[in-house]
Design a protein that fits this description.
Layout: H1 9-32, H2 38-59, H3 71-95, H4 101-108, H5 111-122, H6 130-147, H7 160-181, H8 189-212, H9 220-248, H10 250-253, H11 256-271, H12 278-294, H13 296-303
Helix pairs in contact: 1-4, 1-9, 1-11, 2-3, 2-8, 2-9, 3-7, 3-8, 4-7, 4-11, 5-6, 5-7, 6-12, 11-12
Subcellular location: Membrane
Keywords: Membrane, Transmembrane, Transmembrane helix
Pfam families: EamA
Length: 308
């Protein structure tokens, strides 16, 4: 008999805390955008996170790969750094000028769906089953609703469609980087996070300088929002994520896929008075249903006992 991971009350508290933290991230981005341009917002976020995670990594010994990395591994790490930090941070910050925080949170739920076809072709042993295909199709219908012309009626900007595509593009970056991570050899998770953030920092900085010029002066409210973004949902939540995975396993950790869009919509509605149009709610339902169907087998193994 294979015993499922023993899930403690502490594990449940941590995974709920992660959902709340990541769900509130897009609310804080919305607030920060009131006092800073989007590319400088992304740059400040990655700088704060790099400083904190880098310090923690050095305190823990500064180890990274168990063996000397090959040039291919170094190149793969560089690509992961761009796709997991700089590019999605820039896309989300720019896109949220034109869409609400709730829309962004729902879009992030599609990451788990995007991973399915990518892993099928790129990761041995991750082939699509009929249940995964059905989950992908249902969830993709939700993504189509998100992109649709009436998905969010809260913005009258002509750039709203481009904002939606930018946010979904960020979700695609996260999905691709998640699949590529599986191709890396044994690596220290804290060190990998520090390195990928460090890779993203100069890229975000150069983009901000080229597109928006010198950094603008910010008030204390905006500075606090930027520091919060870098240290809590980016750096702090990573450490919490590691604790959950080590204690309860990666499948239990994936419960955050369901929480993030729910919390982001709720916070946007309560704090920013964002509307809840039926199209957004339908998209949320379809995406979460697709994720649930595609991960059914994993959750069944998690919460029930199975024979060897």
């Amino acid at each position: 008999m294979i015993q499922p991971p023993e899930i403690s009350r502490r594990d449940w508290i941590m995974v709920v805390a992660l959902g709340v933290i990541w769900g509130a991230t897009f609310l804080v981005i919305e607030i920060a955008l009131e006092g800073i341009t989007p590319f400088w917002l992304a740059t400040a976020r990655v700088v704060f996170a790099t400083a904190l995670v880098g310090l923690i990594w050095q305190v823990r010994g500064g180890a990274l790969f168990a063996e000397r990395p090959t040039p291919a591994t170094v190149g793969l790490t560089l690509v992961i750094g761009v796709l997991s930090t700089a590019l999605p941070f820039l896309l989300i910050s720019w896109g949220q000028q034109f869409v609400t925080s709730g829309f962004t949170g729902v879009s992030m739920a599609s990451v788990a769906l995007m991973v399915l076809p990518l892993a099928h072709f790129m990761v041995p042993g991750e082939q699509l089953s009929w249940r995964k295909v059905a989950g992908f199709v249902i969830g993709f219908a939700g993504v189509v609703i998100l992109i649709g012309g009436q998905a969010f009626e809260s913005s009258a900007s002509a750039n709203e469609t481009f904002g939606r595509l930018a946010v979904l593009g960020a979700a695609g970056c996260y999905a691709i980087s998640s699949v590529l991570l599986r191709k890396l050899p044994t690596v220290d998770s804290t060190g990998l996070t520090a390195i990928t953030l460090a890779i993203g920092t100069p890229i975000a900085l150069i983009c901000a300088l080229l597109v928006e010029g010198p950094p603008p002066a910010v008030d204390s409210r905006t500075f606090l929002a930027l520091a919060l973004l870098g240290m809590v949902p980016t750096a702090g939540a990573f450490l919490l994520r590691v604790m959950v995975v080590r204690s309860a396993g990666p499948t239990f950790m994936s419960l955050t896929n369901y929480q993030v869009p729910l919390w982001s919509v709720l916070f946007g509605w309560l704090v920013l008075n964002e509307p809840l149009p039926p199209s957004l709610l339908w998209a949320l339902i379809l995406i979460l249903l697709g994720v649930a169907l595609s991960q059914y087998g994993a959750f069944k193994r998690l919460f029930t006992q199975s024979d060897t």
